[in-house]
Backbone:
């Protein structure tokens, strides 16, 4: 692992325009990097964190709810809990498995293996005049991250690791935090098992979820209302490599909260 | 809410000595702030994140395992899964409720209402020559944060919000992230319900877990091996106030993963 840095910076990219389906997101982000004071020139220890919404919009991972006919189960749940039955239908379509569907909360496991509220289907910040459009999670968020990374590399020659982030709730705690849903160019986990602590004791079970912490750090400057979809995180001491978000998904046999 | 900042910095404090029971932690941290380039002078938008281990050590929230006699249940679990029966015993003593105890994993609910592996009882980085000592979570982590905040204010006149952090695992995802276990001087949650998104749509369920994201951002420069127990997070746009970590604990009636 690289030595631990003593200072980290998170720089929100400025002037990313409203993203639409078919847009070259890497080009838009690269322009924003060039335009943002302190972001350019990119450095060796930078990571680009991009929020899911713009990735899904650029890729067309959206659904117009006016085209959706909810199944009876979706209508019943929506009626009971004052929700949009068509959105509930989309969540169920995107689900590999329903984890919880009670108290108005719908938690599903997506095809990626993520367990989250509404399977990542989201209506907020979709765009002006978007009516009843919702975004889905990108089909292959690692590939989404890789395309952005490749697009930046083509334009600048810089190999910039990319994290695609989304906001997830957690059991037992209120509030949402941003976590990683796709990565390219970095190891999402920092596995310290077998290394020793400050006092020389072996650490038995310490695996740092670096990619999730990068996403959370970025959220602090991106927020939910500001229209900022991406940030450069500088100096996090990540380990480069061809990692995958699949490394972060706990397999069923280790999952004590099915 | 303050306007969203465009840049965040996380500055690891330098030269915090090995902390021992009875030490004036606020004084040690204040000295470290003064000693760390870029940290001093403190600013209005700073938050101090302090990791649990040094708080527990300063407060004497430690147990010498040589004094612990495990109950049969602890011995049996430890034997099956190659763990220290005395540490398992301490975890059970600290627990209000056992959430899961299987596959060698012991997840409990602490008296604070936190649900985490081993109830926050931890043997790593306890100190040199500490033999079989483990740390417990601070009895009242909000009060711990308040004491540090008050100690810094006495010495510098600056009202510096404080977050006490610890590393928690999560269901469904590998790896640990730092979260808040105590706060003073800030609102741990940023409740955006009722406000509108970038496109003017009301946001129905967005509550940002700011204190947890501050803890995660700090972890990126503190790590697990570097002997760094605290960081200043500058520019996070937090909302000041007399918040409590209790706001972040989900009550049983909303908990779908008992």
Residues:
């Amino acid at each position: 692992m690289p030595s631990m840095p003593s200072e980290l910076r998170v720089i929100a990219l400025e002037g990313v325009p409203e993203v639409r389906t078919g847009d070259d997101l890497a080009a838009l982000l690269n322009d924003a990097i060039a335009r943002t004071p302190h972001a350019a020139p990119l450095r060796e220890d930078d990571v680009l964190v991009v929020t899911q919404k713009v990735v899904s919009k650029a890729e067309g991972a959206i659904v117009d709810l006016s085209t959706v006919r909810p199944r009876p189960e979706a209508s019943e749940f929506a009626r009971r809990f004052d929700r949009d039955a068509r959105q509930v239908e989309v969540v169920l379509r995107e689900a590999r498995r329903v984890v919880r569907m009670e108290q108005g909360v719908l938690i599903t496991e997506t095809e990626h293996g993520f367990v989250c509220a509404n399977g990542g289907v989201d209506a907020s910040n979709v765009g002006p005049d978007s009516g009843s459009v919702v975004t889905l999670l990108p089909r292959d968020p690692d590939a989404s991250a890789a395309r952005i990374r490749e697009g930046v590399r083509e334009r600048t020659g810089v190999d910039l690791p990319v994290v695609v982030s989304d906001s997830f709730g957690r059991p037992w705690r209120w509030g949402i935090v941003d976590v990683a849903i796709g990565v390219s160019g970095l190891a999402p986990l920092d596995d310290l098992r077998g290394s020793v602590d400050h006092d020389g004791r072996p650490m038995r079970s310490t695996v740092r979820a670096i990619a999730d912490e990068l996403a959370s750090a970025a959220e602090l400057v991106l927020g939910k209302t500001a229209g900022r979809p991406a940030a450069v995180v500088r100096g996090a001491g990540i380990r480069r490599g061809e990692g995958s978000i699949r490394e972060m998904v706990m397999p069923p046999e280790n999952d004590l909260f099915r």
